Amino acid sequence: MTYRIEFQQDASLVLASEIRGPKPLPAHRSPATGIVPPSHPHLCHRRTTRPGDGDMLLRWWSYRYRPPQRSGLLAASLVLLIPSFFPSLFIPLGRTFPSIFSEWNAPQPKHLSLLKGALQHRTSIDKKSELWAPLAPQGWKPCIRPSTTSSLPSKLNGFIQVFLDGGLNQQRMAICDAVAVAKILNATLVIPHLEVNPVWQDMSSFEEIFDIDHFIDTLKEDISISRGLPKEYSWSTREYYAIGIRATRVKTAPVHASADWYLENVLPVLYSYGIAAISPFSHRLTFDNLPGDIQRLRCKVNFQALAFVPHITALGQTLVKRLRNPIHEKTNEYIKEIQDENEAGSGKFAVLHLRFDKDMTAHSSCDFGGGKAERLALAKYRQVIWQGRVLNSQFTDEELRGQGRCPLTPEEIGLLLVALGFDSSTRLFLASHKVYGGEARISSLLKLFPLMEDKKNLASEEELMQVDGKASLLAAVDYFVSMHADIFISASPGNMHNAVLGYRTYKNLKTIRPSMSLLGQLFLNKSIEWSDFQQAVESGHKTRQGQIRLRKPKQSIYTYPATDCMCGG
């Protein structure tokens, strides 16, 4: 017998596993070696199932005949009858509240006094004008042309392959590094292979995300790029490297390796075999002590060569247009473009990047108000995914928040936005894959910003067809909209935040960087009044709204492109 049960975005069921016993997990993929069976006991079995988007079918149980026991039959009958007589327990009302099998209780606002003050707050016209005004020129401009012009060498040293793990923006940075490494080694770069991320589960390839023709054409004067390997090297695949030790695989590249390391360790492999496969490759090239032309090449890849495929660009442009030209409430049709070019598309909008998925919340080890059930579920997730090796888990929630190490909740980022001058009239685009806790988690944010939109609100099912269910493509759409927003703000640091911050710095666009340590301390103060909170937030963020910050040693060139890729004056 099969029962149909609706879930919140990240609700887990435990009853089925209690009836059936532990259920083995599928094999996990390793970016370096391919598919590897889990060896840790916690990776072999777990009692919760991870739901996907939409409905999930749960096979209640199937068992062999056992001698009848009155208590067992009675319990089984009750379990079978409950869904029939109390369906509301299994289907959350309005998809806002968790069912009895959820791994979290519906979170209530944690800062009621501040929320009340924010709902009553009114922003002056002068403050709004100041907030939405574009950044004034800061004396920096893009500067990525090589210092000297030279043609590609007639003889190359072989082929470089890279296998890239992580999410879209981590892979984006690794692609830039791969181009730089190929240049350092005077080798041909094979179009990078994108691994399937165990969290996002997206199998999209490079050419399904990025415009491969544009990529090759933009870099044709810098390096040699091949769409694939010639026939004599067709054996060099990720499957080949997954089943044994291979002389052509380089798996010892240290994090932030120097150019000399590649010349000493990878170039000999190219000389001997004509090909070298580097895996893992994320964050495997230093940001310091590299020739200026190599640094500028990395920025050229990032800001010019990596353009999205046409259908992603078209969808992104559609969303931006609709954000600037709001929907007419009465006719439910988008307002036609204004003929006057000075007024067309004049509507302002901000993008809020809210990464508040289960992976992020679990790794932070912070308490987000979902009760004991949530704390236990996140602790179990940490044990399964990272075998408990999470540094933050040794600290208390108060210690983590005081140090600014907890991602902002939707409620907290909403309070920050209001304190900075945004209000209920703000057009806010939510760039997010999945919010842990579902609609209940973002209810306070929606109260503060009723005009908040996301991809699914702004586009039809037909328009989303090519990207729906593909995390990397959806992230690409969010990235495109973030590129073109009047203001961008991220609720937590991470690869998306870093990538967008770098682009908007390069283009001199306003980006608000929350002061996590300041906000952590403010939110720990349960007696703080709204006026004091608002004043502290405003004062603490005056210099965090897009002002150029020069890259310091060890900092990422993709987050801080000045001075490597920008010229003063």
Automatic annotation (TrEMBL):
Keyword annotations from UniProtKB, A to Z? Carbohydrate metabolism, Fucose metabolism, Glycoprotein, Glycosyltransferase, Membrane, Transferase, Transmembrane, Transmembrane helix
One Pfam family hit: O-FucT
Statement: the UniProt record of this protein carries the keyword Ribonucleoprotein: no
Domain of life per record: Eukaryota
**One GO MF term, please?**
glycosyltransferase activity
GO-annotated cellular components = membrane
Mention one GO biological process in which this protein takes part, according to its record. Answer: fucose metabolic process
Entry coiled-coil feature ranges: none
The protein's location, in the record's own words, is: Membrane
Family listed: Belongs to the glycosyltransferase GT106 family.
Name it: O-fucosyltransferase family protein
Q: Which organism is it from?
A: Zingiber officinale (Ginger)
